[in-house]
Amino acid sequence: MKIFFKNVLANIVAILILCGVFFFFFIIMLVMGSMGGEKAVVKKNSVLTINLKTNIIDSPTEEQGGMFNINDKNKSILIYEAVEAINKAKTDDNIKGISIEADDLNAGITQLDDLRKALEDFKKSGKFVYAYGNAVSQGAYYLGSVADKYYLNPSGMIELKGLATEVAFFKEFADKYGIGIEVIRHGKFKSAVEPFLRNDISPENKEQLSTLLNDIWKNTSGSIASSRKIDTAQFRTIVDSLYGMIPEQTLKYRLADKLIQKTEYDELIKSKLSLKEKDKLNKISLAKYINSYADEDQSGDRVAVLYASGSINRGNEYNEIYSEKYIKYIKDLQENDKVKAVVFRINSPGGSANASDEILFELQQLKKKKPLVVSFGDYAASGGYYIAMAADKIYSEPNTLTGSIGVFGVIPYFKDMANKNGIRSDIVATNANSQYYSSLNGVTPYGVSLITKSVEGTYKRFVHFVIQNRKQTFEQIDNVGGGRVWSGTRAKQIGLVDELGSLNDAIKFAAQKAGLKTSYDVVSYPKRMSPFEQFFNDLNEEDISAKIIKNKIGKANYEILEQITNKKLQSDIKMEMPYQVKIN
Predict the structure, then answer these.
(1) Pick from 223, 313, 471, 495: most CB atoms within 10 A?
(2) Is residue 191 annotated as part of the catalytic site, yes or no?
(3) Among 200-214, 220-234, 491-505, which stretch is predicted with the lowest mean pLDDT?
(4) Which range has highest mean pLDDT (66-75, 302-311, 409-418, 563-572)?
């Protein structure tokens, strides 16, 4: 009896502790919610600052909050919000200039493009744009080079090196350890499966990667050289020689204007503002500046921006693009009478062919009721391009990775590995193809034939929708398809997109097509999670373990792991781009 009461008491204590932990987090969420409601105040002689704390995201679903990143919420800014903030600061008498103080900026290449254009426009106001760096990444310098003056720490460096990609191959590894991989694809450029088929890069993949990297580098390097007033040939020598790594060389070759400490930089800005030594330098971050004028009243006509960022999957989860969730979003927008037009912002390398098809169908229904304009972010490839085929008009950024019109399936099995280790199996079945695939025996010849037909059928369906939207023949689309990835600039030239432009350009066109003038609100879908929602969303045991692993091994490595371990991702025919390109 004594042991019984002891166990009961221990359980009661455990429950009380658990309740206490929940109450603690509840109070934290409550405090965060109340703090988020207070608007920031913009003081006179303020400087808008893009700093290390600035986290530029393309979609609300990219926001990392909750119990793992409890302080990040107020630092995450949508690219649309960031551009609008810079545009507003241009005519704000309290904002006298902009300071870029980011050694490494968490933003994609097209987001950096948009920020850079907004800063170039800001400079037309006559207000200053200065930049300061320590150990500066290539992406951060691409943005900062737009400044009137660029200042570097005396022991600092600028990692200006150009673009490169490294492709890893696993065929020899798989052969060595007895891992079989059955690959079915359509498109000689569909290189997502190449690492499992070869031990070196194919001529087709090398060609497309070289063209893609050179297109993007031509745009970015041209902008840097122009802003810094450096001859194109000399700039190539600077990059080839990595002169940015040596502080003195950055001065010699005009990458930086002066080597000074951060305190000296702040004093320089104070002098620019004619402030006295005792006066405080008022800096305000992008996040706080946006908070200072954010208006909750959105009662008028609306242009809705539906963000689709990440890989495309079947299911009902919040992060990335899950078909059930997006079908609901699209139907809500279709039925919302206040929403007069929709901009579908795509930042996706693709994913499940089935999920992509479901989303495309619902977008086609939406288009029957109101204008639907598509805007591409960093990626709109494969399935990401497929779901754009309901658009009235497609806007792409010059550096968007797009196209990749191709389909593949990858089926791993472990027959040789199992046999080497004394494992074999026998199959008892009711029908001829009840076990057309198993992890121990692989795929039957009939199974391969069936999956090949499925891949070919999916490719034809893909091309069918592209033909309808792009008003081209099968031969024309097939010629630029085959899984090949293009830059936005090339995509415009070959007719895969309509215009080169930003999200803001797409929003303006959508409003115009809906007959709206200047008095309309721009609303985002999906809505950002509240601190409470983020907290309870993070309580899922599987999500907790996933976040821990992702934080440990990095997002890119986690995505590879998930492809191997997540059964939902393995079971589909794929429309997916094989790689990502980053300017950093």
Answers:
(1) 313
(2) no
(3) 200-214
(4) 302-311
- 16, 61: one domain: no
User: Domain residues for 7?
Assistant: 1-38
* Paired strand residues for 283: 47
454 and 349 both lie in a single domain: yes
Q: Which two tokens stand for residue 343?
A: 């901009």
484 and 503 belong to one structural domain: yes
The answer to whether the CB of 397 falls within 8 A of the CB of 416 is no
Q: Are 409 and 190 in contact (CB under 8 A)?
A: no
Q: For residue 174, list its beta bridge partners.
A: none
- Average the pLDDT over 370-378 and give the result: 97
Q: Please report, as a single letter, which amino acid is at residue 226.
A: S
**Top-confidence residue, 187 or 223:** 223
Number of domains in the chain: 3
Q: What type of residue sits at position 582?
A: K
Q: Is 190 a known active-site residue?
A: yes
- pLDDT interval class at 21 (50, 70, 90): low
Across 370-376, average pLDDT: 97
pLDDT, residue 226, reads 97
The pairs formed by 280-284 with CB atoms below 8 angstroms and a separation of 24 or more are: 281/47, 282/43, 282/44, 282/45, 282/46, 282/47, 283/46, 283/47, 283/49, 283/99, 284/40, 284/42, 284/43, 284/46, 284/47, 284/48, 284/49, 284/95
Residue 395 lies in a domain: yes
Does residue 398 sit in the same domain as residue 518? yes
Quick one: tokens of 570? 């393995």
Strand partners, 522: 303
Q: What is the pLDDT of residues 25-36, one digit of tens each?
A: 555 544 444 444
Residue 187: predicted pLDDT: 57
The whole-model pTM stands at: 0.82
Q: How far apart are the first and last CA of the chain?
A: 66
Helices (H), 193-231: 194-197, 203-227
Positive or negative, the CA dihedral 276, 277, 278, 279 is positive
**322 close to 361: Cβ distance less than 8 angstroms:** no
On the question of pLDDT at 444 being above 80, the answer is: yes
Neighbouring residues of 247: CB distance < 8 A, sequence distance ≥ 6: 152, 153, 154, 155, 156, 157, 256, 259
On whether both 53 and 15 belong to a single domain, the answer is no
Amino acid symbol at 40: A
Which two tokens mark 290? 């946006």
Q: Are residues 489 and 383 in the same domain?
A: yes
- Considering the domain architecture, whether residues 536 and 454 belong to the same structural domain is answered as yes
Higher pLDDT, 413 or 572: 413
> Within 10 A of 396 (CB to CB), how many other CB atoms are there?
32
Q: 30 with 72, same domain?
A: no
The yes-or-no verdict on residue 69 having pLDDT over 50 is: no
Catalytic residue (choose from 99, 311, 382, 404)? 382
Per-position DSSP letters for 370-410, written without gaps between them: S-EEEEEEEEEETHHHHTTTT-SEEEE-TT-EEE---EEEE
- Is the pLDDT at 74 greater than 50? The verdict is no
For the cut 80, the answer to whether the pLDDT of residue 183 exceeds it is: no
CATH no. for residue 366?
A: 3.90.226.10
Catalytic residue among 190, 370, 415, 492: 190
**How many CB atoms sit inside 10 A of residue 158's CB?**
29
Q: Kindly report, residue by residue over 300-309, the tens digit of the pLDDT.
A: 899 999 999 9
Domain annotation covers residue 428 = no
